[in-house]
Amino acid sequence: AAVKSYAAVDLGASSGRVMVGRVGPDSLDLTEAHRFPNRPVRTPEGLRWDILALYAGVLDGLRAAGHVDSVGIDSWAVDYGLLDADGALLGNPAHYRDPRTRGVAEQVWATVPAAELYAATGLQYAPFNTLYQLVAARSTAQLAHAKRLLLIPDLLAYWLTGEAGTELTNASTTQLIDPRTGDWSYDIAARLGIDLELFAPLRRPGDPAGLLRPSVLEETGLTGPVPVTTVGSHDTASAVAAVPAAGERFAYICTGTWSLAGLELTAPVLTEASRTANFTNELGLDGTVRYLRNIMGLWLLQECVREWGHPDLGELLSAAAEVPALRSVVDAGDAAFLAPGRMPSRIADACRESGQPVPESRAEITRCILDSLALAHRRAVFEAQELAGHPVDVVHIVGGGARNALLCRLTADACGLPVVAGPAEAAALGNVLVQARAHGQVGDRAEMRGLLARTQPLTRYEPRGTTATWQAAEDRLTAR
Ligand code: ADP
Ligand code: LRH
Question: Reading across the β-sheet that carries 27-37, which strands appear in turn?
């Protein structure tokens, strides 16, 4: 039977890549056609994504990929570009770490109380949810002139095909979708003066999204027609689709710039307890709910590594493995770590202020970050099970952090559960598999996961020792 090739465009906050997935009756392999850095730019207007560099990277990647049967696009969530009446992009998309949303949530809650907002949208509080970004941009000339809003993957799909849509899994991160219906929260939008007409019609993973334009074919050397297929365009939705789990009793942690830790459910959890624990209900494939918590993730380490002038990561992690465990921990869920810059001293300050030993060497700071992440993973995995009434036997770690053996081992120890690590390129694999499904090559989610479990290299970490030391560290953090 035929093997088909799919290009997965996967843009993370730290790098973009175009991967080629080859899918056969019982085979799946993934190769990297092109990888490029994603470097946001601090402009006088604020922190902006370099969307043209990303688009150039996508075109270079498609050229390097060669013939494919279809293309799918996923990226980080919440951010968007605005188009004018001619369909031209108005300015560079703002970065979700841009401080323009500071204090905006409080304004919003004065109109729609936080509890009501959660009950209607199921989204955790994060200052950068699209809803808050749109309220922050309310009086800007750019928004006044905008006729269309496209989320980042939808913007790239529009540039590639000329067709505009709003993909649902990513739309669910705007805080303007009702997770029970998968449709817009018309009432919330109306009360906040957000014009839902800005959004292009909703489309779902598997839906056709147009054909590469002639100019794109020419630019990339591809021979048409090449269809673009809608995938779970939120990278985390694609990554969760590629968790190689059997059955339902699993938790996942998608680790990259962020750690997204939680469960796959069939219905949202919209209780007040869930809101105060800051769990989110994002939408996944086939009407599933991604019930998870955002944890600062390897961003903490990326920012230190940037400040230190990019030392070798492998050596840094080996040195961190030798540092005694749990000397000091920080709250890796704290939005205080959201902004870029000065990360080593911000971590040291947090330790000092909480009366813990101050990590000084690079190895000590790295260890503090990894212990803190493992601890935050533990809390999220436990609280999600409790709040959703959905017990698990295993934790799957996917994304770039699956390559970090120390982080995986510490997470297994902290949770007292086995960790299965891999695939590291989960978002790209989920992207590929949804395309393959749309092209009739694979069946339901369970079948996709079975194929991943059979074909992708995975590493298992059994928990060691007792979780009491982790519980004590957690008590230390929460007591403050
Ligand atoms: P994003 O999609 O958010 O850009 P990725 O999933 O690509 O992030 O993950 C990037 C992170 O993965 C890096 O910051 C790094 O910490 C980690 N990582 C990547 N490769 C390795 C490696 N070989 N060893 C340890 N960690 C790694
Ligand atoms: C991870 C991610 C995450 C969002 C954040 C903005 O790349 O998509 O799921 O919360 O970026």
Answer: 27-37, 15-24, 4-11, 70-75, 227-229, 208-211
Contacts of 249 (CB under 8 A, 6+ apart): 390, 391, 392, 393, 394
Write out the two tokens for 337: 């770590």
Q: Which atom of ligand 2 is nearest to the CA of 12?
A: 7
**What distance in Å separates the CA atoms of residue 157 and residue 72, rounded to the nearest whole number?**
9
Q: Which of 123, 234, 254 to mutate to test the pocket of ligand 2 (most atoms within 8 A of CB)?
A: 234
CA 54 to CA 74: how far, in whole Å?
12
Token couple for 477: 């953090």
The atom number, within ligand 1, closest to the CA of 399 reads 6
Q: Residue 387 above 70 pLDDT?
A: yes
Query: ipTM, 2 decimals?
Result: 0.99
The residue to mutate among 235, 295, 337, having the most atoms of ligand 2 within 8 angstroms of its beta carbon, is 235
CA distance 354 to 367: 17
Q: Any residues with CB less than 8 A from the CB of 103 and at least 6 apart, and which?
A: none
Q: Are 395 and 413 in contact (CB under 8 A)?
A: no
Provide the 3-class DSSP secondary structure of residue 359. Answer: coil
The string of DSSP codes covering 11-77 is E-SSEEEEEEEEEETTEEEEEEEEEEE---EEETTEEE--HHHHHHHHHHHHHHH-S-SEEEEEE-S
Over residues 429-438, the mean pLDDT reads 98
**Mean pLDDT to the nearest integer, 414-443:** 98
pLDDT tens digit string along 285-310?
Answer: 999 999 999 999 999 999 999 999 99
- Is the shortest distance between the CB of 136 and ligand 2 below 6 Å? no
DSSP string, 134-197: HHHTTT-HHHHH-SEEEEHHHHHHHHHHS---EEHHHHTTTT-EETTTTEE-HHHHHHTT--GG
